[in-house]
Amino acid sequence: MSAPKARGVDREMPDPEAPTPTSKAEDAGPPDEAEAPFDGRAFARRLPRGPGVYRMLDHKAAVLYVGK
User: Fold this and answer.
1) Tell me, what DSSP letter sits at residue 27?
2) N or C terminus: which one in the chain shows less Cβ crowding within 10 Å?
3) Residue 62 in contact with residue 55, Cβ under 8 Å?
4) Rounded to whole angstroms, how far apart are CA atoms 39 and 9?
5) CA angle 26, 64, 61 (to 5 degrees)
6) What is the largest CA-CA distance in the chain?
């Protein structure tokens, strides 16, 4: 027997009684040696001190936040 279909949707709904996968920090493996830990003080020193409009970008240069 297949799972019921959602109304108006052409795909099966997940079985609510099915076990869900879990992830643990130890399952992730060792941290990447090339990636340094976040240094909040160094980050804060690089922030502009004057008024203006600022953008925070992710690693792909997509805008995460615009501050005014």
Assistant:
1) G
2) N
3) no
4) 46
5) 90
6) 64
Strand partners, 52: none
Q: Rounded to an integer, what distance in angstroms lies between the CA atom of residue 10 and that of residue 27?
A: 34
Report d(CA 9, CA 15) in Å as an integer.
Answer: 16
Of 21, 23, 5, the residue nearest 13 (C-alpha): 5
Give the amino acid at 31: P
Rounded Cα–Cα distance for residues 68 and 52 (Å): 6
Which of 37, 58, 56 shows the shortest CA–CA distance to 48?
A: 56
* Rounded Cα distance, 61 and 50, in Å: 23
Q: What are the pLDDT digits (tens) for 8-19?
A: 556 666 676 766
**Distance from C-alpha of 16 to C-alpha of 4, rounded to nearest angstrom:** 11
